[in-house]
Amino acid sequence: MTATTTARPRVGRPEDERLGPGRTIGYGIQHILAMFGGVIAVPLIVGGAAGLDTADRALLVASGLFVSGLATLLQTLGLPYFGAQLPLVQGTSFAAVSTMLAIIGDDGREGLQHVFGAILVAGLVGLLIRPFFARIVRFFPAVVTGSIITVIGLSLMPVAAGWNTGNATITVDGESVANPDFASLPNVLLALFTFAVVIVLSKVPVLSRLAALLGLAVGTIVGLFTGAADVSPVANASIVALPRPFAFGMPMFEIGAIISMVIVVLVIMVETTADVLAVGEVVGTKVDSRRVGDGLRADMASSLVAPVFNSFPATAFAQNVGLVALTGIKSRFAVAAGGVVLIALGLSPMAAAVFSIIPSPVLGGAGIVLFGTVAASGVRTLSKVDYAGNNNLVIVAASVAFGLIPVVATDFWHAFPGWFVTIFHSGISAAAIVAVLLNLFFNVFQPGRPDDPNDFAAAPPLRVQTGEIRVLGEGGALDAESYEPDERTDGTRARETVREPRS
Questions:
Q1: Can you give the three-state secondary structure of 418-436, one letter per residue?
Q2: Has residue 7 got a pLDDT over 50?
Q3: Predicted confidence (pLDDT) at residue 264 exceeds the cutoff of 90
Q4: Which domain of life is it from (predicted)?
């Protein structure tokens, strides 16, 4: 008698594996939960800066969920020339937040219209320059991107603090008066409680990746009992509604806002390129220049469509790359299922209203961790930069300083032309411009490295730790956070540090 075995059909590419319906939906929801806090945080921040009421903030949240779902489907399933067809979740980018806040200023809804106009033009520019992006991306080495990411996190900390304290003044009968609830003890305690919940949950292995979302949920429940949360918007919201294009008015265009947003789009394209390469390494699949280009096209197309449906620039979420490495689930169809869930949530104003009732102190408590994590990610990137015998320390110092000027002195540039103020009042735009120009000056236009850099640039040599590149199982995929190209444009070459996998 001859024994027979049923061989499992081979999958052409790891990312094309098809799971059962239950597993596909379950893993898709897990991906959405891992990035959900980031998706809803951006519209809540921008809506608050624009002075929108609860209903309009709920509309922004619903729009963000809807566009993120569409963008995720485009990136994972793909169309001809669009989509990397990799397990990447697309969502609203934090990189644009500080620039959008600078554009809005004190103009409220009109400022929001300028934001949408700037995103439309910047998304189109990003789509058009995609074929030439390989020539541009080399001007964004780790010393530049690390400085920018650090500034993004630091420049958002005043937003978290403002959520905790509220505004110092309020308008009563057309007059500005002191806010009696400013930095009140109940609000600050609620923020600190939420912060503590997020920290504690971050220590629980099963819940650590959902710590921010669960912290928001627990904080809101406590807010319901203390009167800090109002559930009436949920009761008044409809269950299902189709998205309304240009619900906040037609976009408006201003040159300074457009230039600032184009800079943001370049940063987003660098971020997406890194995420596409990283997830390719984790999955163990071939990612060539054409596939990166298709991923960028999907990214820019999503950003171009986003303002039509009242949302903001989209980008691939790096935390989901880590989730792929952690779970070993490489199927792009599981992530696509998560995109369908996002679209369903975006079509329900009632679901969006649930998230819009989160009290500001609760957002502030979670925001301390969330925005601090962004800054820490920038510091981690900067830790990989070689500071020995070059002026990279000067690049970091100057770019971070210019990026924080708008935070510590809001009227610093007020005497300059309006277009200039719009650009440099955004910390990320200022940091990006200074970092790129100084990198060109020190590392590109002036070949070679000085034998004796000035005192400001002097730094002890960077010691390379073994295990900087680690193995993620039998596939030998590189750690997503440690991926670096061999060639840099900051005057150094990437070090190669390899160790044997653990038995």
A1: HHHHHHHCCHHHHHHHHHH
A2: no
A3: no
A4: Bacteria
In which residue are the tokens 């400013």 written?
182
Collapse the DSSP code of 316 into the 3-class scheme (helix H, G, I; strand E, B; otherwise coil) and give the result. strand
Q: Per residue in 304-314, is it b (16+ CB within 10 Å) or e — as a string? A: bbbbbbbbbbb
**Tokens matching residue 119:** 């995103």
Give me the DSSP letters along 347-409: T-HHHHHHHHTS-HHHHHHHHHHHHHHHHHHHHHHHTTS--TTSSHHHHHHHHHHHHHHHHH-
d(CA 155, CA 407) in angstroms, rounded, equals 6
Neighbours of 388 (CB within 10 A): 15
Strand (E) or helix (H) holding 259: helix 255-283
d(CA 465, CA 442): 27
Compute the distance between CA of residue 487 and CA of residue 493 in angstroms, rounded to an integer: 5
Three-state DSSP class for residue 502: coil
β-pairing, 175-178 with 90-92? unpaired
Confidence of residue 114 (pLDDT cuts 50, 70, 90): very high
pTM, whole model, 2 decimals?
A: 0.65
User: For every residue of 31-89, which 3-state class applies, written as one string?
Assistant: HHHHHHHHHHHHHHHHHHHCCCCHHHHHHHHHHHHHHHHHHHHHHHCCECCECCCCCCC
pLDDT in tens, 339-396: 898 898 888 877 767 766 778 888 888 878 877 877 887 888 899 899 888 889 999 9
**φ, ψ dihedrals at 188, nearest 5°:** -65, -40
Give the mean pLDDT of 4-12. Answer: 49
Other Cβ atoms within 10 Å of 51 Cβ, number:
14
Residue 88 has pLDDT above 80, yes or no: yes
Six-digit token string for 19: 């799971």
Residue 147's closest CA among 158, 155, 157? 155
| Residue type, position 79, single letter | L
Q: How far apart are CA 336 and CA 475, in angstroms?
A: 24
Residues with Cβ within 8 Å of 174's Cβ and at least 6 positions away in sequence, in order, are none
Residue 325, pLDDT above cutoff 80: no
What does the buried/exposed string (b/e) look like for 487-501 if buried means 16 or more CB atoms within 10 Å of the residue's CB?
ebbbbbebeeeeeee
Q: Residue 144 has what pLDDT?
A: 86
Which one is predicted more confidently, 54 or 192? Answer: 192
Cβ distance 61 to 238 under 8 Å?
Answer: no
The answer to whether 216 and 363 have CB atoms below 8 angstroms apart is yes
User: Strands 169-172 and 90-92: what pairing?
Assistant: unpaired
Distance CA 452, CA 144 (A): 22
